[in-house]
Amino acid sequence: MASAESSHVSQSCSEEGQDFIPSKLGTKEYWDDAYMRELQTYKDIGDVGEIWFGEGSMNRVIKWMEKQNIPENAAILDIGTGNGVFLVELAKHGFTNLTGIDYSSASIELTRNILEEEGLITIKVQEQDFLNLSTDFKDFDVCIDKGTFDAISLNPEGRDVAKLQYVTSLRAVLKPQGQFVITSCNWTKEQLLQIFSPGFELLQELPTPSFQFGGIIGNSVMALVFKRLS
């Protein structure tokens, strides 16, 4: 099935490296509608939908986590969990302290259905807007974002404020020295460094597929690991 997510990725990625044109892809209403459709499709035929950035994006992050010996009981937050498939993969690789959040109630219902089908009902999922989190959301060892910051960047209203609030929320939920992994197709490495430099230090750039055009080699997807400073 060509889900909402697969088309959203190609559309949002088309603005790479620019001051993005506002888009409905950055609105809550759009994602509520998209996940309502995916939820109905799941109920009808059991299709969980597409994986944001593909399976390679999940494998890339999990491989890094295992190489870094991230403890299996580390508190991990999936920011903008979507259909929750990444939570399922993390659980399959032995991670036990998992939380997923999304501001779409349909996304959370879809995730809960998928987790129940997989027998993973101990994974915590909550309807939460990352830009307006409840105060008890904190002390995570690892936070992971695959596309949520991209969507925020396309919001037609207040996106500059939203980007600043995202960084503030990230500092609030992540432990000092905690690690943040972001996968983006909208932002270059230099732009992400500038956005997250207040309070965060770049640890590593994860390898992603590259392309060559006109003798210039580039990456269509950027994956970076940051550490929260004290």
Task: Summarize the structure in words.
Keywords: Cytoplasm, Methyltransferase, Nucleus, S-adenosyl-L-methionine, Transferase. Its main location: cytoplasm. The chain is α/β, with parallel strands linked by helices and 230 residues long. It has a single domain, classed as 3-Layer(aba) Sandwich (Rossmann fold). It contains 8 helices and 9 strands. The strands form 2 sheets. The chain has a 7-stranded mixed β-sheet with strand order 3-2-1-4-5-9-6, with helices on both faces. It has a two-stranded antiparallel sheet with strand order 7-8. The longest helix is centred in the N-terminal third of the chain and has 18 residues, at 28-45. The termini are far apart.
What's a concise summary of this model?
This protein has helices spanning 4-13, 28-45, 55-67, 85-92, 105-117, 148-153, 159-173, 189-196, and strands at 76-79, 98-102, 124-127, 140-146, 174-184, 200-205, 210-213, 216-219, 222-228. With 230 residues, it is an alpha/beta fold. It has a single domain, classed as Rossmann fold (3-Layer(aba) Sandwich).
Order of helices and strands: HHHEHEHEEHHEHEEEE
- Overall, the morphology is globular
Uncertain segments are 1-12, 14-18
| Order of strands in the sheet with most strands | 3-2-1-4-5-9-6
Number of strands: 9
CATH superfamily label = Vaccinia Virus protein VP39
GO cellular component, one term: nucleus
Subcellular location: Cytoplasm; Nucleus
GO molecular function: protein-lysine N-methyltransferase activity
Family: Belongs to the class I-like SAM-binding methyltransferase superfamily. EFM4 family.
